[in-house]
């Protein structure tokens, strides 16, 4: 596991295997009351799910709400 510290408006970018394509960008949008709000920039064809939703999909094959994306 890679662990990074980021400040408000700082981002982490995940690249593809060739190092040139931008697969995912995660930006810290807000830090308030002990909570961090993150923004995810990713191609619309790539599903993004909360961890508990991802685990539900892995165990039964369905996110449970019929949509491709879950926040």
Could you characterize the architecture of this molecule?
By secondary structure, the chain is of the alpha+beta class. It contains one helix and three strands, in the order βββα. The protein has a three-stranded antiparallel sheet, with no helix packed on it. The chain is globular.
Brief digest:
The chain has one helix and three strands; from the N terminus they run βββα.
Question: Tags for this entry?
Answer:
single chain; 71 residues; alpha+beta; 3-stranded antiparallel sheet; 3 strands; globular
Total beta strand runs: 3
Return the domain count: 1
User: Low-confidence parts, pLDDT < 50 over ≥5 residues?
Assistant: none
Q: Tell me the β content.
A: 25-35%
Radius of gyration equals 14 Å
Return the average pLDDT rounded to an integer: 86
Largest sheet: 3 strands, antiparallel
Supply the number of helical segments: 1
Tertiary shape? globular
- Which H/E pattern describes the elements? EEEH
Fraction of residues in H or I helices: 10-25%
Strand order of the largest sheet: 1-2-3
Q: Which structural class do the helices and strands define?
A: alpha+beta
Q: Cα distance, first to last residue?
A: 22 Å
What is this structure's SSE topology?
Blueprint: E1 11-15, E2 22-32, E3 35-42, H1 51-60
Antiparallel strand pairs: 1-2, 2-3
């Amino acid at each position: 596991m890679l662990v990074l510290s980021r400040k408000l408006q700082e981002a982490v970018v995940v690249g593809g295997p060739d190092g040139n394509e931008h697969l995912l960008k995660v930006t810290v949008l807000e830090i308030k009351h002990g909570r961090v709000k993150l923004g995810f920039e990713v191609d619309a064809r790539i599903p993004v799910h909360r961890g508990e939703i991802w685990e539900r999909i892995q165990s039964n094959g369905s996110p449970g709400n019929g949509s491709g994306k879950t926040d």
